[in-house]
Design a protein that fits this description.
The protein is of the alpha+beta class. It contains 18 helices and 21 strands. The protein has an eight-stranded antiparallel sheet with strand order 3-5-15-7-8-9-10-14, with no helix packed on it. Strands 2, 4, 6, 11, 12, 13 and 18 form a seven-stranded antiparallel sheet that branches. Strands 1-19 form a two-stranded antiparallel ribbon. Helix 7 (156-169) crosses helix 10, helix 8 crosses helix 10 (396-410) and helix 13 (504-517) packs across helix 14.
């Protein structure tokens, strides 16, 4: 979140008016044509605590996050303890429980927000927040990619002509089958496997006599080296096979513990549907996705699944006979590493299931194949057979497979060089983009309003005790918002900095005053309510607030006014009589004298010793 902190530092340095400072942090994403900087500003309300602890109830913690935003906004900008009205009406201030949840509703609109979060990075919604040097590098890479794409496009006519000439001269029978070789880590018949699934106590384990190795009887299966497919949760992969199932449930290929809830990766059939498991823990850590419709039994068909390594079920694709199928997401919370190299790779077994039927040509890649590659992998015909099919009669997948084979194995070096250069640039950009810092930001669900999450008054503040349904709104004791304002965070932010709001300017100048004098004009800077301390100099507080707004919410001008005042420029010496009458200097009879904070003392020591690094901004120092 350091890019949000950089935004705050920059806002102070360039003297961003306090009303804009407030609006952009609370609702920068909702401003018309919001800039990246304005979206970054909304990271203010994503700095709350989060949890990825196993066993938590996600909705309970999501409610905690939203309540934190409401309470923080009320405290920081209005000096109100509205959190005291979360469980019941406020005991001292004229704020009802319903009004707390009406404020809560403004922050309860983040689409698909989860209470269980990723422990190792930022959680959505987020934005990439490149520095100027990042933007320049991306622009340079994009220009190189555009040039590489143009070069690749230019050679296409020559490449197609060369392929046609090759097809006329090459003997079809001499051309074996082929699948995309890049990233291929396992293929049936190429890597060693052994029979397994024999009765306990058997001296050895052999495939049933008379059965071909592609036929699985619901008991026996094949095992291979598990290290081949020991993919972590951030690693992409592809699994594929030709199958002819005779039962609706069974494991096709897996690197998973051998019970249904086991940790690992598996391509399964469950009740006739193609199922993908990427699991750390069944109850709360992993991805489970299946095809929306079952596949046919007793028919030969190709199944292929890909995962892009981005932690989300949205990164899973299932292809049936080369075509993507509709998916049903069963579980989507992939936030912890998966690593178990001692578990074997299994064909025909895994997750406590056994396959009955035929499994052929199992293939595993350490990358996610694209749609065209998935279609080519499902082409039954060998390369030799494809060359015998007239070009105009080939399907798109057949043409794609033949073209990919020719480019990989037969084409002139110049063609492969053009392709490889473009691919290398794409990978370089992808890797560079992944390193650009990101910031968690605010976002509202898409219109229409009836698609947004409903908000309810929560009885006793409990997440699972909804009461009356409420809409977004503001405390009735304060000035009403203007009717033309939006009924969202932007409207709320405009209301906060409106001149008719009696609190925001007073709370802000009181905090600035505290930073110079050690205490605020209202000593309880976070509580301007009935339980807070009455201002020692109410007229001074009113005057400063008025001057602040009249200046256009100029933060530097306000601080200049304070430090040039006679009150601040007084000597801090105090006699015994003055200390006895006003030990805390609440009446401002002398200049401020208070202890510096630990960070200021540290920085002062570093500065006088010449060791202070004066670079502004950047990642935190560990």
């Amino acid at each position: 979140m350091w890019r949000w902190r950089d935004w705050v530092i920059d806002a102070f340095n360039r003297n961003l008016p306090y009303d804009r400072f407030t609006i952009e942090q609370l609702a920068g994403d909702l401003l018309p044509d919001a800039t990246l900087a304005q979206r970054i500003a909304t990271g203010f309300n994503r700095n709350h605590r989060t949890s990825g602890e196993g066993g938590i109830i996600p909705e309970e913690y999501r409610v905690e996050y939203v309540a934190d935003r409401a309470q923080t906004t009320a405290t920081v900008f209005m000096g109100l303890t509205m959190g005291c009205a979360r469980c019941h009406d406020h005991k001292y201030d004229p704020i009802s429980q319903k009004e707390f949840y009406r404020l809560f509703a403004y922050f309860n609109r983040i689409p698909d927000e989860k209470g269980f979060v990723w422990n190792y990075g930022n959680e959505e919604p987020l934005v990439k927040a490149p520095l100027p040097e990042h933007t320049q590098k991306l622009a340079a890479l994009d220009a190189q990619i555009a040039a590489g794409q143009a070069r690749w496009d230019r050679v296409q006519p020559q490449l197609r002509a060369a392929q046609r000439a090759w097809e006329r001269t090459r003997a079809p029978a001499a051309l074996a089958d082929w699948i995309p070789p890049e990233g291929l880590v396992f293929r049936s018949g190429r890597e060693a496997t052994k029979a397994a699934g024999c009765d306990a106590g058997a001296a050895g384990c052999a495939w049933p006599a008379g059965e071909p190795p592609q036929h699985f009887d619901g008991k026996h299966y094949l095992e291979g080296d598990g290290k081949i497919a020991d993919f972590d949760y951030l690693q992409p992969f592809t699994m594929a096979a030709w199958i002819q199932p005779d039962a609706a449930s069974g494991a096709i290929v897996s690197h998973v513990e051998d019970y249904f809830e086991g940790m690992g990766h598996a391509l399964l059939l469950v009740d006739g549907k193609i199922r993908v498991h990427i699991l750390r823990r069944w109850t709360d850590l992993g991805i489970r996705v299946e095809s929306a419709a079952p596949i046919a039994l007793h028919q030969r068909q190709h199944v292929l699944v890909t995962y892009d390594g981005e932690r989300k079920a949205a990164g899973v694709r299932i292809y049936w006979n080369g075509e993507p199928v509709a998916l049903k997401v069963l579980f989507d919370q992939n936030t912890e590493p998966i690593h178990h190299p001692k578990t074997p790779l299994r064909i025909g077994a895994g997750s406590g299931l056994r396959f009955t039927g035929a499994i052929e040509d199992v293939s595993i890649w350490n990358r996610a194949l694209g749609p065209l590659e998935a279609a080519a992998a499902a082409v039954r015909e060998s390369i030799g057979q494809l060359t015998g099919i007239p070009e105009q009669r080939r399907t798109a997948a057949q043409s794609g497979k033949l073209a990919a084979y020719y480019l990989e194995r037969e084409a002139a070096t110049e063609f492969r060089s053009a392709r490889d250069e473009l691919a290398a640039l794409g990978r370089e950009r992808q890797e560079f983009y992944a390193k650009i810092p990101s910031v968690m930001v605010m976002a509202d669900g898409a219109a229409p309003r009836d698609t947004q999450r409903d908000t309810f008054l929560l009885k006793r503040g409990a997440y699972d005790a909804p009461g009356e349904k409420v809409t977004a709104g503001l405390p009735a004791v304060l000035a009403a918002p203007r009717p033309e304002w939006e009924k969202d965070r932007l409207g709320m932010a405009r209301w906060l900095v409106d001149r008719n709001n009696p609190l925001t300017a007073r709370v802000a100048v009181n905090r600035f005053w505290q930073s110079y004098f050690g205490f605020g004009i209202v000593k309880t800077v976070d509580d301007f309510g009935a339980q807070g301390e009455f201002p020692v100099h109410p007229e001074l507080l009113d005057w400063l607030a008025g001057e602040f707004m009249e200046s256009g919410w100029d933060m530097k001008a306000l601080q200049k006014t304070i430090v040039m005042s006679a009150a601040y420029r007084q000597a801090s010496r105090a006699g015994a009589e003055l200390l006895q009458k006003d030990p805390d200097n609440r009446l401002l009879a002398r200049g401020p004298r208070f202890r510096l904070g630990p960070e200021v003392i540290r920085d002062q020591a570093l500065a006088v010793s010449g060791l202070l690094v004066e670079k502004v901004g950047g990642p935190s120092v560990k």
